[in-house]
Write a structure and sequence with these properties.
By secondary structure, the protein is of the alpha/beta class. It has helices at 7-13, 24-27, 34-45, 51-67, 75-86, 95-110, 114-137, 147-157, 176-189, 191-217, 269-285, 318-334, 352-367, 381-390, 424-430, 433-440, and strands at residues 223-225, 231-237, 248-253, 258-263, 293-297, 301-305, 339-344, 373-377, 394-399, 401-404, 407-410, 415-416. Helix 13 (352-367) links the parallel strand 7 and strand 8. Helix 6 (95-110) packs across helix 7, helix 6 crosses helix 9 and helix 8 (147-157) packs antiparallel against helix 10 (191-217). This is DNA mismatch repair protein.
Amino acid sequence: MNAFADQQTLDDLNIPGRHKNNSIARLFDAVVTAGGRKVMDELFSRPLVSAVDINKRSNIFKYFGKLGISFPFSDKEFSIMENYLASGNGSKQLAGGWNIIWSKVLELAAQDTEYAQLNKEVCHTIALLNRFHEFAAALPQEESPYQVQLTQIINTFSHPRLRWLKQKKGVKELSLAKLIKYDYLLRNCLHEQMKVLNSLIFHLDVYIAVSAVGQKKGFSYANALSKEEHTLEIANLFHPAVANAVGNTLSLSQRNNVIFLTGANMAGKSTLMKSLGISIYLAHMGFPVAASMMEFSIKDGLYTSINVPDNLDMGYSHFYAEVLRVKTIAEQVAADKNLVVIFDELFKGTNVKDAYDATLSITEAFSENRNCFFVISTHITEVGDSLMERCDNFLFVYLPTIMEGVKPRYTYKLSEGITEDRHGMTIIENEGIIAIINASG
């Protein structure tokens, strides 16, 4: 259950699902291990709502981004160790020793391969544990944001029952007695310690993967502030999945907590709003964001209304589905939560008169909650004219269209004010639709 954003918001912003095309989760899916992928899924399902926790996590990502190191294992070799250790049960009994002896007997008597396979797995696990220990020991420790995890790693490898590990570096085959002893220690006696190490390795996989993606994409890390600050500053914001995207700068506060966005079709309004929603979501995860700078006060949640589907099974028209979506968000705002709310084209499923009246009244009502930030786009520019006269907490911006003859060119760069751009018929005429229809007659 994602308490920070509901399913509609996640779908609008295409955030979850590493197998989905152009999803944000897929963008960051550069982890190596299966356990790392599980950790990544958990992080995406639970954004943080503590400024301290957010900054701690983002500092770890920054730390590994500066180091520019690679994860020390391949998926194939790590999965051998992972599966081997996972088969332990933490039992303090030596019943496993008798099983090993019996498998040795079967090897001698019937050329059974189980004993050799176990020997190989234990030697492989010893090699990887030593490699991980060396990798962790080589990480810079001075003022390291990863120090807590490093201390866990060092303490685990310093366990009295793991002192033999370093001496067995490079071992290719173990005697029967050593195999029984080390198998018992690794899978049973030290079962909990191995679980801790596995978890640390999985998280390390995520830290290295996410920081590498951030470096490659030119993302930056947001600075989280306390909820009471009520601020959002973001420079050169762009959509992380759009190539050669144009950046924009946005600023919100309690004094100006509503962005009223206008622009013609195809001018980039929806992409800009999605870019903002994605950055807010990633920032609350402590992940790198698609911007050159971001500073934000933490929020309780994020809600969007961008691609609201109708529900024919329940008899909902598109307009009624929009109304229900606005009602859901209104209930969250009324619950005294600090939210970021993004509305793209309110009430486009009804006539222009009703859409004007509803957009004006609901936008004005929402804006009175100064602890929430709102971004609202519309084609009905007359709403903006009325709000400009009645409200002092709005920022009016638009995405312009430049006509070059009969062809529109979009800058995707925000300007102040309310646009009167309406080029829908020009686009229709450029595509020759009327001529096609007339010719068919």
